[in-house]
Amino acid sequence: STTPLKVAVTGAAGQIGYSLLFRLASGALTGGRPIELRLLEITPALKALEGVVMELDDCAFPGLAGVQIGDDAETVFDGVNLALLVGARPRGPGMERSDLLEANGAIFTAQGKALNKVAADDVRIGVTGNPANTNALIAMSNAPDIPAERFSALTRLDHNRAISQLAAKTGAPVTDISRMTIWGNHSATQYPDLFHAQVAGKNAAEAVGDQDWLENTFIPTVAKRGAAIIEARGSSSAASAASATIDAARDWLYGSAEDDWVSMAVVSRGEYGVPEGIISSFPVTTKDGDWSIVEGLEIDDFSRSKIDATTAELVEEKEAVTGLGLI
Ligand code: NAX
Question: What is each CA distance from 176 to 164, 203, 207, 260, 263, in whole angstroms?
Answer without folding.
Answer: 11, 12, 12, 11, 17
